[in-house]
Amino acid sequence: MRNATGGRRERLLDDLAWRYAAPLARFFERRVRNRHDVPDLVQDVFLRLSALPDPTTIALPENYLFITASNVLRDKARRDTVRHADQHDEFQETSLEGSDITPQRVLEGKEGIVRLRAALMELPERTRDVFVLRVFEECRMTDIAAAIGISRRAAEKHYVRALAHIVQALEDWRHS
Question: Which UniProt keywords apply (predicted)?
Fold first, then answer.
């Protein structure tokens, strides 16, 4: 007996979905701002119908469906108010362009930084200071020489040594 009732229930739900999906969609289209919400709202009506213990006992299914549709709209309005839906911008997938930098390139860059740091630590302190002040702090050679207490020519030699060491270290790493 249970299978016969279950089969009858399924046939009724299928019949109601087939007959009333389009009218419910039109009902919602006239009442909501975002047309993308319409299929979800129609589905919510039929979900509520299917949750009934015995939908075959409904005397006027059309009335029930449209009263339920009104309740679904009311519930949506409450949710939208709580979530401040009117203050949200619609997601535009084209506005989020991807990066041309591949994950492999990012990894290589991070490894290069690690290697650069290691090469800098291999340098004598004064040579490293000259290089860091020139490259990272963008100081002029004259200012570097004055800050360290050496001649401008000596500061330039330290910079050239540091640059040669770092270039060689990065070349060795790249070819390994």
Answer: Sigma factor, Transcription, Transcription regulation
